[in-house]
Amino acid sequence: MKFNTKNAEEKMKKSVAAYESNLSTIRASQANASVISKVTFEYYGAPTKLVDMASVSVSDPKTLTISPYDRSTLKAMVKAILASDVGITPQDDGSVIRLVFPPLTEEHRKGLAKQIQKMGEDARVVIRNIRRDANDEIKKLKKNGEMTEDEQKAGEKAVQDLTDQYIKIVDGITTQKNKEIMQL
């Protein structure tokens, strides 16, 4: 019986996608709408994502413009942005909110690079945990007599190859994001 790596591969794909999603929230000195993608505020007693209640656009490379669909939510949105970890003070003129991204200092870039490295290591750990779970499953199949020793070794090699492939993807994404941060 050949071990099916589809389940492990699917989990690894999801962990890479989650890693990319987390990286997109890191604020660089360029305006990027994804930095506020996780900001929520109270709207009629329910936590609501800011991006669901406003039009978000990049008006120039350093400015993000947020136009609420309902002007009465403007103050709550400003308060939510201030309370979030975006790190930019919003400017509101009564109808729109502007986030002006300041240029990054060398010290802040190095801090972001460290944060990116840590997030990359966390993603690699998740992938290695998926490998461990798949290998445990293979050992269980071998122990139950559903798999020969050769099939076990082939399954473990397939899982290891998959792990190496996805760790390489995470490393590439991490390197790219670090380059992007350091060149700004």
Strand content: 5-15%
- Characterize the largest beta sheet: strand count, sense, and whether it forms a barrel: 4 strands, antiparallel
Radius of gyration over all CA atoms, rounded:
22 Å
Strand tally is 6
Q: How large is the count of helical segments?
A: 4
Name the helicity range: 55-70%
Shape: elongated
Strand order of the largest sheet: 3-4-6-5
- For this structure, the quaternary state is single chain
End-to-end span in angstroms?
Answer: 52 Å
Structural class label = alpha+beta
Low-confidence stretches: none
- The average pLDDT value, as a whole number, equals 87
Task: Please write the string of helix (H) and strand (E) elements.
Answer: HEEEEHEEHH
Describe the protein's architecture and organization.
There is one protein chain. The protein has 4 helices and 6 strands, in the order αββββαββαα. The protein is α+β, with helices and mostly antiparallel strands and 184 residues long. It has a 4-stranded antiparallel sheet, with helices on one face. It has a two-stranded antiparallel sheet with strand order 1-2. Strand 1 (40-43) and strand 2 form a beta hairpin. Helix 1 runs antiparallel to helix 3 and helix 1 packs parallel to helix 4 (149-183). It is elongated and about 70 Å long. The mean pLDDT is 87.
Provide key terms for this protein.
184 residues, four-stranded antiparallel β-sheet, 15% strand, alpha+beta, 4 helices
Show the helix and strand layout.
Blueprint lengths: L5 H19 L15 E4 L2 E4 L4 E7 L2 E6 L5 H10 L7 E2 L4 E4 L5 H38 L5 H35 L1
Antiparallel strand pairs: 1-2, 3-4, 4-6, 5-6
